[in-house]
Specification:
It is built from eleven helices and two strands; from the N terminus they run H-H-H-H-E-H-H-H-H-E-H-H-H. It is mainly alpha-helical. Strands 1-2 form a two-stranded antiparallel sheet.
């Protein structure tokens, strides 16, 4: 009887412990599989970077720049721990060179677009009375934060995750449309401005990332673009800030962009399309445009 009781006790306890262990293991394994999936680490990264951006983007002083640094740390952690992949796209080596190259392209893009609109009578500029240093300092701090966090969200996380699932072409189309939709809540936005942003910004910045495979290149382009607009006194995606100049707008909204600003003008849409196509051609020549199956390898 003593032996039978002991046997029953051992037999009854064994399966229960094993079942609990399997449940715990399965739960952890399921969670790991979710975050390892491209949509899982994309969502985790977007939440983390989005929270950092929300807490720091509109705070005065150097806080947006510090928020950008924190967002990069969050991105690195998510990619390493959740996606289980290295992060050469945010490597410090060569970061300055890539950001400078992107910045030159972004500066040229906005200046050429502005000059063409001005030559056609759409814009006229006058010097603003605000001090040089405070205006430039504010613009630089705010736009560093915006450029870094938006590029981590849309190109670092979304484009790379969707690329692994469906390839580069689908990824750039989806992220471009999403980028346009994300700007529909801006002042002066409408269906055309959303499409314009998708074409000139979403596609151009996506193509920039595919060409260089470097976040800092896209950040430099994005930063120079927004900062130049702000310093010229042109609304940045509908948002008006103090610049070094004030702009008087005259003519059709198709030419000037209307209340939304330069980005809703057909001029930068056409120039941005040319730049995007050029970068995509270069990316394809370099083997950086991936098919659905090639991106998974």
């Amino acid at each position: 009887m003593g032996t039978t009781s002991a046997t029953r006790h051992d037999t009854g306890a064994g399966p229960d412990k094993g079942h609990e262990g399997r449940d715990g293991h399965d739960g952890r394994g399921r969670a790991a599989r979710i975050v390892r999936h491209p949509l899982g680490w994309m969502a985790a990264g977007m939440v983390g970077v989005g929270v950092v951006s929300g807490l720091t983007a509109t705070v005065p002083g150097p806080v947006p720049m510090l928020g950008a640094a924190a967002a990069v740390a969050v991105y690195w952690w998510v990619m390493r721990r959740c996606a289980g992949r290295p992060t050469p796209e945010i490597a410090r080596r060569g970061a300055g060179r890539e950001a400078l190259l992107g910045g030159v392209i972004g500066l040229g893009f906005i200046l050429v677009s502005t000059l063409l609109i001005t030559a056609m009578g759409g814009y006229s500029f006058s010097r603003a009375g605000d001090g040089f240093v405070p205006v430039v300092w504010t613009a630089v701090m705010v736009q560093i934060g915006a450029a870094v966090t938006e590029e981590l969200l849309f190109r670092g996380l979304a484009l790379q995750a969707l690329e692994r699932l469906w390839g580069s072409w689908a990824a750039i189309v989806i992220t471009s449309l999403f980028f346009g939709v994300a700007h529909l809540g801006a002042p002066g936005a409408n269906a055309w401005s959303g499409l314009a942003i998708a074409l000139e910004a979403g596609a151009l910045l996506g193509a920039a990332f595919l060409w260089r495979r470097n976040i800092w290149f896209a950040v430099g382009l994005h930063f120079a673009w927004n900062t130049t607009e702000e310093l010229l006194g042109v609304p940045v995606s509908g948002h008006t800030s103090e610049g070094l100049f004030t702009v008087d707008v005259d003519g059709s909204a198709l030419l000037t962009g209307g209340d939304f600003g330069l980005e809703a003008s057909v001029v930068p849409v056409l120039i941005g399309a040319v730049l995007a196509v050029t970068m995509l051609v270069l990316a394809r020549r370099n083997g950086e445009v991936k098919s659905r199956h090639g991106a998974r390898r």
